[in-house]
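dumping this here before i forget
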Amino acid sequence: MIRRVLIFILFTLCLASLGAQESDLERFFQDESLESLIDKALQLHITAKVLLPNEQTVWNSQSKKVTIPGRSVAVRLVGDNIRIDVVFTPYQEENGNLLLVAQGQVWFSEAANAKTKYLTTIQSIPVSWGEKVSFFPLGFSQEFANTPTFNIQLEVEIFPYRDLLRAPVE
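structure:
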């Protein structure tokens, strides 16, 4: 008899729990916070290029990353004797202005057994929607000014994520 009463109570609690979970889930999807998050979301279009001294592109890679203002997006490029880590963090002011903070770290060596060099840079760049921003993680060193060498360039564009959801599919 006690066993039947316990089973009945557990069964009743399970049904009540399922009903509570369903109403919580319904409230979550009816809540405007999800819509608000989508409205704030940004999409970064990132293009990485390796250019010869004559500006001819010898390597190109594109990616799209979704984030929200204040949350960073990381990019890593790895070669035989070089590793580049770049972190892009977009910020949006209440008036709609955008600021892109780009932080780069580069480890490279000129030969396989040579000492590894480390460079770091950080830049804050005011940008507009869809404006292409070029970031050169290796910079423009005076050491390489007279020597023909390749250049690494990252281009970043920021778009409102909501606008891309409404865009026609190509």
